[in-house]
Amino acid sequence: MKKWVLLGIVLVLSACTSQKNVNALFNQYKQSENSSLYNVPIQIVKFLPLDNIPGANILTDIKDVKILTIKDLSDEEKSRFNRELKNALEADGFNQEYYNSTHGRMESISTQSSIGKFKYVVIALQRNDKITFIKADASISKLKLKRLIDAIKNDK
Predict the structure, then answer these.
(1) CB under 8 Å, gap of 24 or more: what pairs does 98-102 form?
(2) Which residues pair with 137 in a beta bridge?
(3) Which of 48, 56, 65, 77 is nearest to 123 (CA)?
(4) Distance in angstroms (rounded) separating the CA atoms of residues 95 and 115
């Protein structure tokens, strides 16, 4: 019985710190000189005409979104950010659902699951000298995320 109680405590504590490394990375880079932070009021999304946008129905399942953009990065800084992001996602137990890197552009979607749904979604986009880092607190079904990924792939 003691083992089960201890296991329960460990699981609760690990759930509480489930984004510890990703949050630390986000906070580290939001302090940089060429960064901009946006907290998106998700309630606004309900009023947008998104019917004809593939994968947009996923927005109804998102509770909170933070977007961090970092501009004017050197190749070395982009590489360092990508390494740090990969390490943070792995340390926090995220799974990479989608990755594409071509012609100096990179797109990545990583998720953390909870009871059959994706609880957290991290999207990283890299274009030229700019990185966009998106963190979403959500409750997204696997089917909806698959549709979004398919829409991204077909948009190429």
Answers:
(1) 98/149, 98/152, 98/153, 100/153
(2) 64, 120
(3) 65
(4) 15
Q: How far apart are CA 54 and CA 91, in angstroms?
A: 32
The tens digit of pLDDT for each residue in 65-108 reads: 888 899 988 888 888 888 899 999 999 889 998 888 888 788 88
Q: Model pTM?
A: 0.76
Q: With contact defined as beta carbons under 8 Å apart, do 71 and 127 qualify? A: no
Sheet hosting strand 95-102, strand order edge to edge: 35-40, 62-70, 130-141, 117-127, 105-114, 95-102
DSSP 20: H
Higher pLDDT, 55 or 84: 84
For residue 65, give every residue at least 6 positions away whose Cβ sits within 8 Å of its Cβ, in sequence order, or none: 39, 40, 42, 134, 135, 136, 137
Report the alpha-carbon distance of residue 83 to residue 114 in Å, rounded.
26
Centroid of chain to Cα 54: 19
- Which residues touch 148 (CB under 8 Å, ≥6 apart)? 54, 55, 58, 109
